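Need 60S ribosomal protein L7's 3D structure for a figure. Predict it.
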Amino acid sequence: TLKRRSSAIKKKREIFKRAEQYVKEYRIKERDEIRLARQARNRGNYYVPGEAKLAFVIGIRGINQVSPKVRKVLQLFRLR
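Structure prediction for 60S ribosomal protein L7:
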């Protein structure tokens, strides 16, 4: 039980350090965004922050001989 307890404590510390690292990283990113916006404003320009991009890549042979639910999903995604 002593080994288990010590390993649990080590794990908790590691998890806490990881969480701190994430917080630090996001604070730095936030500061950079603010800095870039201010810099652009001072120079008379506009700063457009980056947006999240997501792409689905699906290879399909066709819509025939597919169950109705799957067919409907493909139609909704406009993958006819």
